[in-house]
Amino acid sequence: MRLLVLCVAVLLLQSCRERPSGRGTDSPAVRASLAESTSAIAGGNDAAWQDPSCDTDTAQAHPSAGVLVREYLVRNDSLGFTTGASEENEAWLLGAAECPGHLGGTDGIVVVSSYGLDSLLAGIDSAQYLVSYHVIGGADPDGSGRWRFHAGQRLRLDTLVLVRSPYGWRIGGDPTDPLMSPSAIARRYEFSIPDRHMLDSIAQMGGRASRPGA
User: Fold this and answer.
1) pLDDT, average across residues 179-207
2) What percent of the residues of the chain are helix, what percent strand, and what percent coil, each to the nearest 5?
3) Distance (Å, rounded) from C-alpha 54 to C-alpha 33?
């Protein structure tokens, strides 16, 4: 047990050391992420809801881009999307996505200890946000009804593109990658005893996703 606690402490300490010191867009990774999302906007987001295969929700909803992106992050952290998520959470995503008919799926979940949100662009018809995740590992089904946790630390940068449709703001692209805190994933799925002890220890030592600031 002492060895387990020591391993968790080292993992969290490394996460603190690798936390980015700035919130600008000067790093190559941030610039590449921003360029990729900008290309996505230029590639046809202005007419996505006119594509019948998109099956866009035409109910008026999400009048604020900032509120929408924050709700997406909180829902993803606590419940996940596409991987055994609640029906209510799935329905919310289908209504919030710009093109729900083209959403993909995944069998795995990324486990994160914290995340931060920065606004990159706030326009009249589009907005871009950079989300920095401190990843501590991943989880996937083991084939027996249980899930496996794989420890592995890295920094992940995602650029979320939001577009304003005639029906309100929507999340562009395919934002379905589940990124959940260790406490949330431990509550929702069944793990082996060693994996559960590891997730519980990380959560107890503060390794749960922080909520995005204003």
Assistant:
1) 85
2) 40, 25, 35
3) 24
